[in-house]
Amino acid sequence: MYRYDEFDHGFVAARVDQFRDQVARRLTGELTEDQFKPLRLMNGVYLQLHAYMLRIAIPYGTLSSKQLRMLGHIARTYDRGYGHFTTRQNLQFNWPALKDIPAVLDDLAKVEMHALQTSGNCIRNVTTDHFAGAAADEITDPRPYAEILRQWSSIHPEFSFLPRKFKIAVTGAPKDRAAIQVHDIGLELKRGPDGGIGFAVYVGGGQGRTPMIAHKVRDYLAEEDLLAYVEAIMRVYNLHGRRDNKYKARIKILVHETGAEEITRQIEAEFVEVRKTELLRLPDSEIERITAYFAPPVLAEKPARSSAFEAAKADSAAFADFATYNVTPHKAAGYGVVTISLKPIGGIPGDATDVQMEAIADLADAYSQGEIRVSHEQNLVLPHVALDDMPALYAKLAEHGLATGNAGLVTDIIACPGLDYCALANARSIPLAQDLSNRFGSPERQKEIGELKIKISGCINACGHHHVGHIGLLGVDRRGEEVYQITLGGSGDETASVGTLVGPGFKTEEVVDAVETVVDTYLKLREGPDEPFLAAVRRLGQQPFKEALYGTA
Amino acid sequence: MTTETTDAELTIWRDGRFQADEWTRAAEDEAVADGPAILPLERFLAERDALVSRNAPLGVSVEPNEAIEELAPHLDRVALVTLNFPKYSDGRSSSSARLLRERYGYVGEIRAVGDVLIDQMPLMRRCGFDSFAVTNPVTRKQLAEGQWPDVPFYYQPTGSTQQAEVPAGTRPWARKPS
């Protein structure tokens, strides 16, 4: 993992001191809420429906056990004993008192964390594959590049007042678990013609009220030019992105209105100029120095097959399900990557209590080299677990209600905080996720349905990623009533697509039945258990689902 | 007879103190006054040949939707460029300032005008601004008290010469104020 040096510590400490002073001035009334707002937003402090919310950056979703323990401590000391992991691989605390926030930031700084650039029209937390550095299918670990981007984008003097927020995602594997094509910039690590490392560069993807899949502007960019190229993109966007309407201000709109070809020309022309200065060229030595922080852990050699693991699968159906759905192949033989589901049946997606956070930190120390990941699907991941240790790990997870074997299944639902917390929401998301989870929660039912991603947003801003849900649910307000629209066929992976609205929305009391109708229609029409939901929707189109939901008209 | 200068007339923050503004802005269709005068970019470009004979410094005001590239070939005749921030949250002029300094090698004064607030000023300085027309009373008070809310650890080499920065540590992009 990356470790701060003196410079990084100095940076965070100076920023916390600055914000402490601003909070003090707000509390004495010297600053009005209007004057304070831009300052608090730059430090991750939002004002929600009922209270301040603090959003903490978890760079590229990587946490050490020490950091997770500190988050548990903060949850218990300054919040109501839980935190909420987000679709941006971050963590939100929903109930901190403003006066306590500088102390929280001090605690975070002790474990090399902060809340910078988790809001505002700047470059946000760079996200990546939650299996980075562990997955068997990876070309190279994307996190060193994400770390370089994180540093370079921190309080950037030119790019802190962009037309709108800006999100960069990096994947190191051809199977895209970071949803790069629905980000402002998506970077896919690949080998170049010369065998070197570089990136395919995508620009202009996004969700929100105008979902768009990104355009590829570069098939191959050498790694040394990463910052120069990103700076070129940022400058074109900063100068030319729309500022007249916040809903048309993301780079996707600029790309759409300018045309992919012309925007590519502008970016490339700017890149030629930026590159000339050589200021941003990444020397190999520095890439190597940062990469060394992410060196793969030294794992004891193991046979590919673990008899303890196989015996436990034969012994317990629940463990076998967990092994099937929550354990992913690791680079190293005899190891697996474990997804800890934060989606217990009927629970709140992404929430973890202080006790759970501390328990997971302990388990990471015992079984996963002290490392934890946060996935954009609102789960946690132990990246380096020996297959031999799986049964013991599973038993301990179960003690804390963390052994639900549903990763990637119908109850592994993404949901935004919705009307229960958020000032922007039109509808509740969490109770719907809970109702769906209860409806489909039996192990047999989930297994029968297979891979199916349901994603719920409580408003058009799409924080719950409904556009890329295999089944997407969007809460809207229809004359004062909460109504949910259903989209089908979205996907955030390397075959990215935006889901299509299937028809008129459903009321709260109807929507769970409607989703069940969609699922039953799939089960009836699929070619067999090997045809997943998404493939079936792509083959069948919307018609059969429309007919099932609305009758033949 | 000397004229008293009131605090309110010292509108320009430069070199760590408030100073009087010595520049006049030429309105759309009136003759350019004697002494240092600022013209809008469009008028400057249209009249630049006729302006050569003037013996006083010329300044150019550029709006964020105007392309700074158009001014680039004429910078040797320009002593001041003002870049407007219609809102503090509009960062376009920061890009223009960096281009002026770093791409076009402009060494004259770059002044931020418009919604200039203290929290953006250290960032603006790193982009190449060296003077600031400050009207916001809170910002004026804070500056007068000596506040300068910089975080003096920079992760970007901006290449600007206005804010002297030295490399820090092994990262080629890390800088500290010198």
UniProtKB/TrEMBL annotation, chain A:
Top-level taxon: Bacteria
Pfam families: NIR_SIR (PF01077), NIR_SIR_ferr (PF03460)
InterPro entries per the UniProt record, alphabetical: NIR_SIR_4Fe-4S, NiRdtase/SiRdtase_haem-b_fer, Nit/Sulf_reduc_fer-like_dom_sf, NO2/SO3_Rdtase_4Fe4S_dom, NO2/SO3_Rdtase_4Fe4S_sf
Residue ranges occupied by any Nitrite/sulphite reductase 4Fe-4S domain in the UniProt entry: 119-271, 411-548
Domain Nitrite/Sulfite reductase ferredoxin-like residues, every copy: 52-110, 335-399
Enzyme Commission identifier(s): 1.8.1.2
Keywords: 4Fe-4S, Heme, Iron, Iron-sulfur, Metal-binding, Oxidoreductase
Keyword match Ribonucleoprotein: no
A GO molecular-function descriptor: 4 iron, 4 sulfur cluster binding
Listed name of the protein: Sulfite reductase
Organism (species): Methylopila capsulata
Gene name linked to the record: cysI
From TrEMBL, chain B:
Xref: InterPro entries: UCP030820
Annotated region (Disordered), positions in chain: 154-178
Name of protein: Oxidoreductase
EC number: 1.8.4.8
Pfam family, one: DUF934
GO molecular function: phosphoadenylyl-sulfate reductase (thioredoxin) activity
Keywords: Oxidoreductase
